[in-house]
Input
Amino acid sequence: MNDPMDFLLWTKGPAFEWAVAIFAFGLLVRVLEIFIIGRRPNFAEPRAGEWGPGLRTVLTRSIADGGTFQRAPFNVVVGWIWHIGFLIALLLFIPHLELIKSLFGFAWPGLPNPIVDLVTAVTLVALVATLVHRLTHPVKKRISTFEDFLVWGITFLVVLTGYLAYHRLINPYPLALGLHILSAEIFLILLPFTKLTHIFTAVIARWYNGASFGRRGVAS
Amino acid sequence: MSELTLERGLAALRAEVDGPVAAFFSSCVHCGICATACPFYVETGDPKYTPILKVEPLRRVWSSEFTLWGRLMSTLGLTKKVTDEMLAEWEELVYDSCSMCGRCSLVCPVGNDIQAMVRKTREGMVASGHAPEGLIAASVRAVQTGSPMGLQWKTLQVQIEHVQSSTGLEVPVDKQGVDYLAMLSSMEVINFPEYLEAITKIFHRAGVTWTLSTECFEATNAGIQIGNKDVAALLVQRIVDAAVKLGVKTVISPECGHAFTAIRWEGPNLIGKPYPFEVVHIIELLDQLRASGRLKTEGKESDRLSMHDPCNLARKSGVIDQQRNLVNLVAENFVDLKEHGKFQWCCGAGGGVSSNERADAIKMAAFKRKKAQIEEVSPERMVTMCATCRTQLEEGLEEFNMDIPVVGLTEMIADHLVEK
Amino acid sequence: MTQSNKTLGESLREHGISRRGFLKFCAATASMMALPPSLIPSIAAALEKARRPSVIWLSFQECTGCTESLTRSHSPTIEDLILDTISLDYHHTLQAASGDAAEAARTEAMKANHGQYLLIVDGSLPGPDSNPGYSTIAGHSNYDILMECVEGAAAVIAVGTCASFGGLPAADPNPTGAVSVMDLVKDKPVVNVSGCPPVPMVISGVLAHYLTFAQLPELDQYHRPKAFFGQSIHDRCYRRPFYDKGLFAETFDDAGARAGWCLYRLGCKGPSTYNACATMRWNSGTSWPIESGHPCLGCSEPRFWDAGGFYNPLSVPTTTSGGTLLAAGVTGAIVGGAVAALARKQVKAEEADRQPVTVDELEQKL
Output
């Protein structure tokens, strides 16, 4: 496989199958590990049900409270910016929507390319800012591990290679597109074994949090 | 002679892993926002007090034994282990710098209930022999004498007699078939004896039938503070036995924070079944009496009052409006601290911190968060509903030369009862 | 019979091409090759004097489409005449002779022009390890013929995607074991003029370059002349503004299609395809696939037949991985379920067997 077209076709063929397989396998293992271990029964008289408060927290925990916003403005603001930017680039870019349609049978309207392009550029800058923050903020410095940087790296690479491919800054194009697809596949492979699982498990964690506090009459 | 070992600590940690723990550790992205909600970090600036770092022993057990990848890495010897040295190092983080106030649990963006995980981590700390001396001593005393401070009934009896003679009212003891069994905290009995007098008067005026029990008067639970379910269960069982023997409908938890968490939320799970009675915090009961018109008060405090919500009562039990309803009954110039209710800041002394002499300095440092809150509002007096919080506030305000008296809410209500 | 003394210039004049017309052609060739205008006189001079080179055209596993493309014209163009002017000494479709006579013509031309003839190949051929019976000419395997003819060739031009990259015969599952010319020829210069078929003017442009400069033009990593294959269709497509604005046709007859919007969503491979269609177009510049409303197939690229479907957009995987996803998910569920159930059992056992902490044990720590 020494030519760009073969590389591209490999990323769109066997590599994709493997990445998706490892992702599906690993994620299901992780999710089942959570649910099957489950919770012990709770005999304390509840003040309220669990489901309502649980679902509520799933939604409201995305909005930082005033105090947290004041004390961690970078985390809150830049966190929002790059997550939203990443999701816009992933879910509202026409070529990605075609991919989604081919996988799931349906998609939705997208945004014009120049808008996605601008959002992507902003996301790249925001991501670099988060790296600098992680390297300089005392709390993040203390608690960060190799995995944090690995995950940052692959996330940044996915967005960067997409940007480079769109702007045809790497030639020939099959190489550029292949690199982008490959980095997305590496992202999928790493996902179930790193903190990237939060994409799927944060919902579960928030629910448990809301449920636990909700039982005691507190909207968390 | 059996002893506490690393192996038992690890076994205890394993027994604490559940679905939520797995979801929480799967979701932590190391953003560090939990630190911004922790008074111990905020007032020292030392990143080792970051809440999620406190539960690292639990995380390592989960990761290496409860995840597929971790198990694989474990067989290859590539995981980080929990060692005795590590637990010794972590003792300060898990006990000295954490009151289990739960503020971190409210701000984590992915929804981690870090406070609950600290509680779980303490199980491993105790079983491995890495708990602070003060808490161990309190637990031993509580189990052996019934009170963590070694308070005996005979001392309480003296107070009972004083209340009876001062009020002319009876303090019921071991009365069968009444509605309520009142629990007390040793700290209260020793430092704030006004509480017993206050409830005697209030219950009499409101027509509440109640009693104390000679078999068990202690509400506080050193087992909860040290984080050991065996000691905690033993202590809760005493309350349950007393309540069942007297056939009461409801048990009242006094002005204490963790005692309410212990009896109301952990208790049934410690003994493995629901109670045959209800549990209520004295503030909840007083508000019920107010709402049903049975609590008649007159006159209002005129000085500028503010309030400290005990974490276990407000954020961890949802008792937030009740105290405000009550204080507004008897005060005309009440103003809340800026961040109050579920987002209030911990006084720094709960969760066993005040029983841990080694933690004195950091406890005072954490108090500075509360101090800043109080300074923002400049009250003339502070009201609160927990003996430990009250003690911390009094000591802290004195330490910083702030002349702001602290008063208990129940006692303030009692002072305004309509004279018959 | 195989060699003429006429130069290219004499030959063109014989056909009535004026000097003016000839110079126009040279200017067009220069600009096509991105050569500076100052070279036009040298191009003209060289072409004028060029001897008719001998050309052997080998056709292997091909559809004759490349020849059709090259020879299809309604009025003679200079390109056609250049083709006429080269001494095409062997070509299955175009030559008059057949059978032994045709083969004899080939071997004679090869002998007479040894080391100087141009070898043009269209179609892919079964590789040396494949059954030669899949494609033979006069009882000889394609492979043997190619090796024999390459030996005395000055250069090889692989015309069409089949000769350049394997093309249709090499598409999955490649039953004949087809390979491309460049897979087999390592010791002679090889130019790939890919396309299915190639744009006619590209061939003549390459020939013109060779006749003028006695060497092959600058090639890309796929051995294709950069002058014609250096730009992607996407970068030269007249519908590009629609792509940039995000205006796409979604079906072949919707309003967007009728308005001439970008065909990305209908499977256009323009972004990854390098060819001259967008600028030179087809049928003497009449039109080209995208202009007529059909997405680019990517026909000048290797393995375009297996690149995931002509009507699947570029961003869609080539495999249908629904089954894999399901299988992997189910496996994960089973493994995860089993492992977690074991863990749950283990936790429950730990709880049941847990040795309670006693006051005595605590006291030891005081």
In short: Chain A has one domain: 4-36+69-210. The mean pLDDT of chain A is 95.
